[in-house]
Amino acid sequence: MSGFDVHEHRHALKQLRDTGDTSLWENRRAVACPACEEPFDRLFTTRRSATRFPENDGARFCLVRDGDAIHVFRH
């Protein structure tokens, strides 16, 4: 497993939300998740030390820590 650079994949992602500390992205071109190598639907990135996630629809997700950020890939 390796890190994930959002800017490297920016051409394939659509930014849905950005608060400065967190961002939410939609995967438009089937970019592979660095944890499981399968395409993901959404990407949530945070630099906060603690974050609360709302209830989800039961979709599986992968976590990747990269430097000062944590990336949550929802499949």
From TrEMBL:
InterPro entries: DUF7385. Pfam families: DUF7385. It comes from the Archaea. Keywords: Cell projection, Cilium, Flagellum. This is Flagella cluster protein. It comes from Halorubrum halodurans.
